[in-house]
Every structure is written in C-alpha cells, then in structure tokens.
C-alpha cells in the first residue's frame, strides 16, 4: 500500500468536529480527538463518559493530556498544506528530493520548535488548511447575504453558512462540512428515536399495571362495602345513619383511588401521545436530505424530551377505607356494652369483612415522622420544652426577636420537619385541654397579624373550642361530634395524593379527611391556644410513634 493511500487527511482529522486536530489528546481506548471536542462531548453527555468512536464506557472521567507528537505532526501537515512551493498533495514525493513534504515534516518534528498559531485563524485552524472546504452540491437555499451555497455548518451558532460567512461573521467559530455533520447527527437522531420508542413501551406497560391494580382495589372496596352492609343489617334502625356515613368514607376512598388512577392514566396517555408525535417528527427528520431544513428543525425535535419518571409510581388503596372498618369495629364493641339486650349475633360482624384494629395502626406507624418544634417560628407567649416535644402558652411575652418566620399574633408554632413528598404520620397528646388547633400549614402562608385559617390560605386544621366543640377549619367551619372524646390526635399526610387525615389515636378511629392539591412544602402545625385563666394551661405533647418492626 502506497504512502498517499495510508496517510490521508482522515489521519489528521478529529472524528467529532471533522477538522484537522487542534491540541490533540489521546484517551485510554487509544483514539485521539481535539482537546476542546472531547471535553465538550463529555460535558454535554454527562456521566458516564464514553469514547465517541468505539463507545467504550469509562468508569470515571479520564484525565487527558496533549499528545505532543501528534500535535507537532499535525502542525507540520498544516504548514505543508499552506506552503506554496510544495506539491498540492503533501503525500506525493517532490521531484527534487524524491521524498514527500510530509516525510520532511515528520523527520523534523524533534528538531524544530512548534510553530506559532497561523495569523488568520478559522476556529483553531486556518481556512486554507481545512481540506474539507471543497465544492459541494447543496439542495438548500443560497446564502441570503453572499448568494453562495450553504455548504458549511457553524457548530457555535448551529446554522448553515457559506464560505464567505465563515471568513467574516463566523471567523473563529468551529466550522464543518454541512453534509458530513448532517450524517453524524442523523445517527444521533436514530438513537433518540429508539429511546423515545422505549419510553412509549414503558408507559404502555405502566397503563396496564395501573388498570390491573385498579381492578383489584375495586374488588377489595366492594368486599369492604358488602361487609359493612351485612354488619349494619343486624343493628336497629337508629344506627342506619351511621351506616350511610361510613359507607360514604369507603366510597370516598374508592373514588379518590379511582380519580388517582384516571389521573395517572391521563398523564401517561398524554406523554405517549407526545412521544408518538416526537417519534413521527424524528422519523421525518431522519429522512430529510436538506441540511438547512434539517438543522433548522433539529433543536426542537432532536433532543431527548424531559418526561416524568414512572418507575416508582404505583396505585395503592386509600388507607381511610381501612380506617372506616376499624371505626365500625370499635363502634360494635361499644354497642355490645350499651345494648346487652340485643342478640349476640347482631353485634358480631363476619370475621372476613373486618380488618383487625392493629392492621391499620401498623399501617400508619409505618410512616411515623419524628416531629420536633421549631422555636424560631413560635409566638413570643409560647414556651417550648428542652426536647422540643411540648408547648404551652404563658401570660407574658418571651424576649424573642421578631423575624419573618415567627407568628406575632396567633399563639402557634410549626414543626421543624418539612413535607414535600411521601406519607407521614405523627401523634399529639391533648389530654384535658379545652382549646387547641392541630394540622399542617404551607411554608409560604401568612404568619403575621390576624390569620384566616382555611385550606384556601394554606391551613388544614382540626380544632377544639370550649372543651366540646370540635370543628374542621373550612369556610364556614364544619362542626363535628366526637364520641368518645379523643385524648390523643393522629395526623396522617399523603403529599402526592393531597390528603390530610385526623384520627382519634386512642382507638384509631378516623375523624376527618381533607383532600387538596399541594404545591408548596408543608410543616406540622401546633397551637395550644391561650391558657384561658389557667383552665387551658396544659401543654400539647408530641408522642413517640414507633414504626412496626
């Protein structure tokens, strides 16, 4: 094989920018690239780092150093290509010496100092030293400024340009042949299209998974409803109202789960439709033969779309349904003591229709959150214990500095823990207090002056007033009748579902559930209220909830 065939211009071209090497470096797999090209390639892709040619995957980002020998040979190649007294082909032997100019360049590498950069630079190369600036047919429109064919592509500005544009406004930019760059980017488009098709398949499988889960949950909800119906049929007529109320809780849980299922499916179907549109656009782009049109559309369809990760999304039953079953069980136990004249069978529910009380307790304890009080948010009249687990209200103001985080009129305090995802549960002992407020609040909600506490203003509360008046702080407030009177309140938050539930933690009976859409971080909220002339001086105490072993 002759030297001209072996040492072609490709031996001195970077496979990333397709130009003559500039500060060439070698990576562990043996391939060489311009230092700027390989570092930019790795920066754009992120981890893991791999070779653009052989796709070898490196464990970490390799350290690269300039290949001085290859750099000097490349500089000689540039010089020979620009020197007027040498053959147009640097690999053809000179008639005078019998040796090619390129041979002379190689023999002088170790004895000649590296050349200074050319005076007229094009990116990091002189225009005359770029061998790929040949005449090339282009089907695109001519340059609007110079009338020449748009046969070049500026990688800095991502536009097709002509040779005169390259010497003027794009001087100093990274310029490559448009046709060759289009062939390279088409391979990238093919990779993106394959990834999009994979995302479509993954989401279609997730739709099937959610539909299957919904069918099972609907069957379970039906069994729970039938169990409660059988139980209440044994009770006297004055218990029928309670039957309807509890069935509504189960239906609310089923409806909430169904709504969540429909939301998931709708989001997945929208993403699938978007991915199908992207796939169609990528297919059309991959078939394009016009560089101008190709690069004009490439930024909008040639990149990987940002999509929601569905790997950890599953459809689970609403825990309030099981809580309703526990409430029924507790009510039946109370009825056995109060209605001893009724036949035993009237108060005995079928075992298979009743979840044991410890089942739901264990379910909530699984999401136990260790809550502590944030003194920086406390009203000056509040006193917090050293372990940040108790708070009570005194008559006098404490010497605190007023900050934007501190409540200055309502005697309340927030928990240190922020809630922006997941499920969480904690318990607060209220004992014999006559007044208190418990719940969650949005981080950005108002803390100064008189506060309008409602879900619309970022507050989700359960309140007690005058020892017996329980209410949900809606607009207007929703009054509740709680029997027996709770000594300990459980608060459960499912952030993704938008649920805040309150329980009588002594018997694990559901009190109320808020449903909302959370867009802000939440914090636990505590208000012991004023001490009412020492009638309400007992503290609110955050209890320790042990997760199940």
Concise structural overview:
The chain is α+β, with helices and mostly antiparallel strands and 549 residues long.
Give the SSE layout.
Layout: H1 3-6, E1 24-26, E2 32-34, H2 35-45, E3 49-50, E4 57-58, H3 68-82, H4 101-107, E5 152-154, E6 159-161, H5 163-167, E7 175-177, H6 178-232, H7 240-286, H8 291-301, H9 319-338, H10 357-365, E8 382-384, E9 390-393, E10 413-414, E11 423-429, E12 436-442, E13 459-465, E14 469-472, E15 478-480, E16 488-494, E17 499-504, E18 509-515, E19 522-527, E20 540-542
Helix pairs in contact: 3-4, 6-7, 7-8, 7-9, 9-10
Description:
The protein has 549 residues and is α+β, with helices and mostly antiparallel strands. The protein has three domains: 3-119, Zinc/RING finger domain, C3HC4 (zinc finger) (Herpes Virus-1); 190-335; 356-542, Sandwich (Jelly Rolls), CATH 2.60.120. It contains ten helices and 20 strands. The strands form five sheets. Strands 8-9-20-11-16-17-18 form a seven-stranded antiparallel sheet. Strands 10-19-12-13-14-15 form a six-stranded antiparallel sheet, with no helix packed on it. The protein has a three-stranded antiparallel sheet with strand order 6-5-7. Helix 9 (319-338) packs antiparallel against helix 10 (357-365). The longest helix has 55 residues, at 178-232. The radius of gyration is 37 Å and the shape is elongated. The relative contact order is 0.07.
What is the first-to-last residue Cα distance?
Answer: 75 Å
Task: Indicate the percent of residues in helices.
Answer: 25-40%
CATH class of the largest domain: Mainly Beta
Q: Which second-level CATH architecture of the largest domain applies? A: Sandwich
3D shape: elongated
Using only C-alpha atoms, the radius of gyration works out to: 37 Å
The largest sheet is:
7 strands, antiparallel
Give the uncertain stretches in residue-range form.
Answer: 1-6, 85-138, 339-362
User: According to CATH, what is the topology of the largest domain?
Assistant: Jelly Rolls
Count of DSSP-assigned helices: 10
Structural class: alpha+beta
Per DSSP, what share of the residues sits in E-state strands of 2 or more residues? 15-25%
Instruction: Estimate the mean pLDDT confidence.
Output: 78
